[in-house]
Request: fold
Amino acid sequence: MTDFEKLRKSINDNIPQMVSLEKLLTSIPAMAPESGGEGETKKCEQLEVYLHAIGMNKLERIDAKDSRVPSGIRPNLIATIDGESDDYNIWIMAHLDVVPPGDLKMWDSDPWTVVEKDGKLIGRGVEDNQQGLVSGVFAAKAFIDNNIKPKHTVKLLFMADEEFGSEYGIKFLLREHKELFSKDDLILIPDGGDPKGETIEVAEKNILWLKLHTKGQQSHGSMPDKGRNAFLAGCELALRLNDLENVFNKRDEMFTPCYSTFQPTKKEANVQTVNIIPGDDIFYMDCRILPCYTIAEVRKVVDERVAEIAKKYGVEIDVEELQHQESPATPADAPVVKKLAAAIKTAHGIDARPIGIGGGTVGAELRTLGYNAAIWSTMDEVCHQPNEYCWIKNIAKDAETLAALFIAE
Reply:
């Protein structure tokens, strides 16, 4: 048997253990304090125990302080598997935190107890991001079990706080521990993909989240002349901002959808009865902008349209940016993309292609600072949904691809 064949056999022999680890991790809710959770500490501690038990003894904790959680910290854990060469590291980055289950009536089972059914695991977090986490663990375990060294040192990073902005996760590490990363490192984030595992995400749309607060004059519903209808002004503003899809209208087929989107989303309650003209109104926009446009360009047009609506309706409009993120793309010929594509071909005979996405990942944080990162996995993308699931075969399949990546020159 070749070394890769030995690794593949070990990975598939360990499928029952993959299921067991998924069950263990899901049973420990690791929700952020923003969701009323206690953070990731208990989950991280159990993962540390597990990694030690399977022979991963080179572990390092880098904790960010957070007084909002009982432990006072948000843990980031690194497991190192020494390679034949340490001229660069191969990073596999997965996050420990999960989102709340949402309406429990929408679930067919307890979200925190994994159900194994028809080749799937069902439970909160089994795909997002435990599939990638478990795949990385068992790819590395195969090397330990077979006494084979990766060609380059492998670093498994288990991060905190991905679901609420990464201030205690990758942003903290990039800000306070710059020495961890090198521009030559290969960085793979198994936190997005497609059902066949044939797309490698190398670019993200720029993100701009807006809160629009319109302040008018409340009046009786029969006397609009005595008021200034904040809701009406907000409605026209929402339409005018949605129309920016016709202003920033370039197309890029790398992305789906292939155009910039400016969508009104959340709407706050305004008045309590039908016969009141609202004097106060708040709505939100989720804008996903092709990288060919800067956020500064978009801000300028947003401000112009806000001013026009404020003048037309005699209202004040406050604009608050809840989030903004813009990052360069990882080049399609970057080493991480080429080597990952080669590993996918080696493991499964698939010709992978680079794509862009509208969603946001920690890859944007890395790319902004000049680190090339790729996002890839084999998954149905059911994250955050009721009855979230992952395919057991995909955990093993992705571990095989990672093993092929680790063993490549």
